[in-house]
């Protein structure tokens, strides 16, 4: 009943159910993998992330972030520098093995296997983030209680 009248209940509901299930308590890290900055004080609402927060967001290693204003320039920078997505094109995957030579041309004119994974600096950043969460010295203190 707690979540019946709770603002943004979907953000905490499943975490709460899993953390309160005895069989998951010793295997679950209490972290939602998101970079969030809160109003200060009272830390009740996330602030809109902007270009000013870009470095902190990237350095956090978190694979997700919130909250962004619609069409904020930081979203274009994320597309360009982290996802390497060009305007009008999909995010490049490991299956992309050929580059278009002309501006505006599909950067992946030659396709390879969709099962290929090519680690990047971003995947290494994510690996570091996850290893920190799972570090035996930190793991127990971040588990659901």
Describe the structure.
The protein is mainly alpha-helical and 145 residues long. It contains five helices and two strands. The chain has helices spanning 10-19, 54-60, 73-82, 121-134, 136-139, and strands spanning 34-35, 64-65. It has a two-stranded parallel ribbon. The protein is globular and about 55 Å long.
Category by helix and strand content: mainly alpha
**Whole-number average pLDDT?**
81
> What Rg is obtained from the alpha carbons, in whole angstroms?
19 Å
- Cα(first) to Cα(last) distance is 20 Å
Instruction: Trace the largest sheet across and list its strands.
Output: 1-2
Put simply, the count of helices is: 5
What letter string, H or E per element, gives the SSE order? HEHEHHH
Q: Please indicate the percent range of residues in DSSP E strands (runs of 2 or more).
A: under 5%
Uncertain residue ranges: none
Q: Which term fits the overall shape?
A: globular
Helicity range: 25-40%
What descriptors fit this protein?
145 residues; mainly alpha; 2 strands; 3% strand
Q: Can you describe this structure in just a few lines?
A:
The chain is mainly α and 145 residues long.
């Amino acid at each position: 009943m707690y979540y019946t009248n709770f603002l943004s209940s979907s953000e905490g509901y499943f975490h709460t159910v899993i953390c309160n299930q005895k069989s998951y308590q010793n295997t679950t890290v209490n972290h939602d993998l998101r970079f969030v900055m809160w109003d200060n004080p009272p830390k009740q609402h996330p602030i809109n992330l902007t270009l000013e927060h870009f470095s902190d967001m990237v350095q956090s290693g978190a694979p997700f972030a919130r909250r962004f204003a619609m069409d904020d320039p930081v979203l274009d920078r994320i597309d360009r520098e982290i996802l390497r997505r060009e305007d009008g094109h999909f995010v490049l995957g490991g299956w992309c093995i050929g580059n278009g030579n002309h501006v505006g041309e599909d950067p992946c004119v030659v396709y390879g296997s969709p099962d290929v994974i090519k680690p990047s600096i971003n995947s290494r950043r994510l690996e570091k983030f996850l290893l920190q969460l799972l570090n035996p010295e930190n793991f127990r203190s971040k588990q659901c209680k």
